[in-house]
């Protein structure tokens, strides 16, 4: 079970934010092109940063807490998912706050 720790945290983040889409109708997932344009630079920059840090020996991941699926460059799949999940949750939260403040 410990190998799923990272994924469990990501699932918790999604559970805390995904409900905003249907309940508040923020439209983040419906505007998927806009979301993709937001995510791509984040994923590319931070994945490259992590890969460089791994190659330089400055950064490691505990294999006991990740799935064990490692992408080229030594980047764990879990970390790549982090770069997708956390920004999606942030955008959902931001849009929810905007909607609530706009439509009292």
Notes on the structure:
The structure is a single chain. This protein has 104 residues and is mainly alpha-helical. The protein has one domain (2-102). 65% of the residues lie in helices and 0% in strands. It has helices spanning 5-17, 20-24, 32-55, 77-102. Helix 3 runs antiparallel to helix 4 (77-102). The longest helix has 26 residues, at 77-102. The radius of gyration is 16 Å and the shape is elongated. The mean pLDDT is 93. The chain crosses the membrane at residues 6-24, 36-60, 80-97. It is found in: Membrane. It is a multi-pass membrane protein.
Gyration radius over CA: 16 Å
Class inferred from helices and paired strands: mainly alpha
Biggest beta sheet summary: none
Number of domains: 1
What brief labels describe this structure?
single chain; mainly alpha; 4 helices; elongated; Lycopene_cyclase_dom; isomerase; intramolecular lyase activity; Lycopene cyclase domain-containing protein
Summary of the model, kept short:
65% of the residues lie in helices and 0% in strands. It has 104 residues and is an all-alpha fold. The mean pLDDT is 93.
């Amino acid at each position: 079970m410990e190998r799923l720790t990272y994924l469990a945290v990501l699932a918790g983040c999604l559970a805390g934010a995904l409900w905003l889409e249907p309940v508040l109708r923020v439209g983040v997932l419906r505007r998927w092109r806009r979301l993709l344009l937001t995510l791509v630079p984040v994923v590319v920059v931070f994945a490259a940063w992590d890969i460089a840090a791994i190659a330089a020996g400055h950064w490691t991941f505990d294999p006991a807490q990740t799935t064990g699926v490692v992408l080229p460059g030594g980047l764990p799949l879990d970390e790549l998912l982090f770069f997708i999940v956390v920004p999606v949750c942030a955008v959902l939260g931001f849009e929810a706050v905007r909607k609530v403040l706009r439509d009292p």
